[in-house]
Specification:
Layout lengths: L2 H4 E3 L7 E3 L16 H4 L10 H5 L23
Antiparallel strand pairs: 1-2
C-alpha cells in the first residue's frame, strides 16, 4: 500500500485531508471523527508549577507576537 492510496488531497479545500472512509473536518470545532465517549468526558486541566513557569527563559520569544483570530474571551460576569 502506498501513501497515495491512504490519503487523498482535496484541492478545493487546501487544508483538508481525507482518509478513505472518514469524512474531512467541516469546521475548526468539528469532532465527528472522535468517539462520543471521548468527547463527552469532562476536561481536567493540569495545574502549572508557577515557580517553574516564572523561571523559564523567554529570550527565544523576544519580539514575537501572536493573537488567535478565533479566540473568544470568556464572559467576565
Amino acid at each position: 500500500m502506498n501513501l497515495h492510496s491512504v490519503f487523498e488531497y482535496q484541492s478545493e479545500e487546501p487544508q483538508s485531508w481525507s482518509v478513505d472512509g472518514v469524512s474531512s473536518e467541516k469546521n475548526s470545532r468539528d469532532t465527528c471523527n472522535f468517539d462520543r465517549e471521548f468527547t463527552k468526558m469532562p476536561t481536567e486541566l493540569t495545574p502549572t508549577d508557577k515557580l517553574f513557569i516564572m523561571n523559564l527563559d523567554q529570550d527565544e520569544f523576544l519580539g514575537f507576537s501572536y493573537t488567535n483570530p478565533e479566540y473568544v474571551p470568556p464572559n467576565q460576569g
